[in-house]
Amino acid sequence: MSIIEETIKRVRPLDEEAIAAARGRQEELTKPSGSLGRLEHLATQVAGIMGNPLPSLSRKVVFTFAADHGVAAEGVSAYPSEVTAQMVYNFLRRGAAINVLAAHVGARVVVVDIGVAADVGEQPGLVRAKVADGTRNMAVGPAMTRSQALEALEAGVAVLEAEMGNGIDIIGTGDMGIANTTTSSAIVAALTGAPVHAVTGRGTGIGPQQLLHKVQIIERALAVNQPDPRDPLDVLAKVGGLEIGGLAGLILAAAANRIPVVVDGFISGAAALLAWALCPAVQPYLIAAHQSVEIGHQVTLRHLGLTPLLDLSLRLGEGTGAALGISIVEAAVRCLTEMATFAEAQVAQASERRETSGAPEHAG
Amino acid sequence: MSIIEETIKRVRPLDEEAIAAARGRQEELTKPSGSLGRLEHLATQVAGIMGNPLPSLSRKVVFTFAADHGVAAEGVSAYPSEVTAQMVYNFLRRGAAINVLAAHVGARVVVVDIGVAADVGEQPGLVRAKVADGTRNMAVGPAMTRSQALEALEAGVAVLEAEMGNGIDIIGTGDMGIANTTTSSAIVAALTGAPVHAVTGRGTGIGPQQLLHKVQIIERALAVNQPDPRDPLDVLAKVGGLEIGGLAGLILAAAANRIPVVVDGFISGAAALLAWALCPAVQPYLIAAHQSVEIGHQVTLRHLGLTPLLDLSLRLGEGTGAALGISIVEAAVRCLTEMATFAEAQVAQASERRETSGAPEHAG
């Protein structure tokens, strides 16, 4: 586990000096103190992550990891597994929601085949990092070997570090994989101890009967495999997915390189939970983009101590919520770095702060 | 009241054919049905507003109306009135939060002096539409005459229609005016019947003693002036603000011209409430950008039947939340118009929708 151990060791606490400097500047900008709410906190967090009180987020990247899941054979999804590869082609032809939303926020999309159960082939824009042709069916045995799980994590690290050559200021996480809400529920149940029914949702729309079946399959997978919650790699191997392992590695590598991570929805949340279980120090590098419709996502975010930026009832994955979240983080940082100060703009500060709570009123 | 009456008459219901066509297309796009959540509803709403199933929102404008308030003399704000004019200069020099956020989302900012109590002068980028040098102190008598209130509404209509020459696909509303949360609370209390304390907040940061004083001033203004809730123009004249009247006129004109209106926070919300009281048909043209920290904003949005897109604890005004909201609406519309369909992308649909709730799972 040397690459992963080495990556974990490189994850340092946030830079308190940059945080203090960013906070100080927030008080000088032409707005009442605190009036930009969460935008001020976000900008300060990014300053601490990047170790720069005046950071820039111009180079934005969404990583969409794709893989198949053996458990799809149990009928937990309304779509056939073939759709994973079909959607990868759609990503590469820029026809999917993530392509549109990433373009909207000025982010590039890096598509990674880490375990699609089809030969997607050499494609422009595709990163080939296949660990296996999908996982095995976790309802009857481990989804992958321990060594494959480690390979998936390492692939995530390698993908991030290779892409750094093109420049990265902030990343978003994304996923594609038929049946991967099933896998994510299993991971979240295993790592948090929550009952399966409390972390299992309708994916993107199965009915109540199929949901019951999905819960039973996840319970069976946990009973058959007995993943050890104190050993995140064991959880990933037994009930995980290759794209989830890849995303967990990506998150670790981003934190090691002081890059803010905007975490998409439930699948990305499960990956973040794995990364956090392996390395609790990643927590301050994480920004939860949105609250997914999936009930397990709430449990995941609570466990991670994260509050989502958006609540738009998204349940698509791919990194779609992360793309929107990246734009809000960038907006926050631009306010910090581009707004005029009271002195520059010759605007009066509330000198007579009689008994204000530190935040004088001027508008709003 | 002829210009306003004529504008109100032009506000038509949304285009049901465009809505149906947009909804139909949503089902063909390469994503599980409904998986883009509120983004799908937003895009459909915009299609209905614009009467176009494939709308484009490339020309985005935030209107920031500035004016002063006589009630500032009562010490309801920690800032002196001079800051209104100083911030107008800051807007024109692009140093304020609204300039940064509008630039971030690709919107232009139109700054309107509708009642600043200082001669801002001829300035590049400033629309001069001054009705008066600020309002009078509503705690001792009407803030303005009925004819001034009407002029403010008409100025808002004129500003929108003049700017249409430069092209407008969507607008955001914004405000600047020391003491304008006080005015907005008075309007919301008058129009909704809510008690003053339930709609009055700490603005952008006054302490508990000053808040008590603010509530008393608003109660006195309502007692002295007795605004008639069945006559929105009377409410505007007696306890309103010139920028709030201007924004209400702007909103009416936008709806009359089938332009979606992204409403900022509490002050813009009070303006939207006035526009709605004058013309209930504006409601479907409105999109609430965010939930402000001000408690009166919740009452306002509930009254208008609007659910905010964002909840970032903003309390700045200027149109800052509206700018962020515009970007989300544009993202929604771009998904509708730019994503590939299942047929185009050769992606399998969930044909075997056994007992799905209409929304098959593929990712997330």
Compact description:
Two copies of one chain form a homodimer. The first copy, chain A, has 364 residues and is an alpha/beta fold.
The main β sheet of chain A shows up as: 6 strands, parallel
Uncertain residue segments of chain A: 351-364
Give the strand tally of chain A.
6
CA-to-CA gap between the ends of chain A?
53 Å
Count of DSSP helices of chain A? Answer: 14
In the CATH classification, which architecture of the largest domain in chain A applies? 3-Layer(aba) Sandwich
Shape of chain A: globular
Widest sheet of chain A: strand order?
3-2-1-4-5-6
Order of helices and strands of chain A: HHHEHHEEHEHHHHEHEHHH
Overall tally of structural domains of chain A:
2
Mean pLDDT of chain A: 95
Task: Using the coordinates shown, work out and report the CATH topology of the largest domain in chain A.
Answer: Rossmann fold
Report the largest inter-chain contact: A-B, 93 and 93 residues
Structural class designation of chain A: alpha/beta
* Cα Rg of chain A: 21 Å
Can you tell me the CATH superfamily of the largest domain in chain A? Nicotinate-nucleotide-dimethylbenzimidazole phosphoribosyltransferase (CobT), large domain
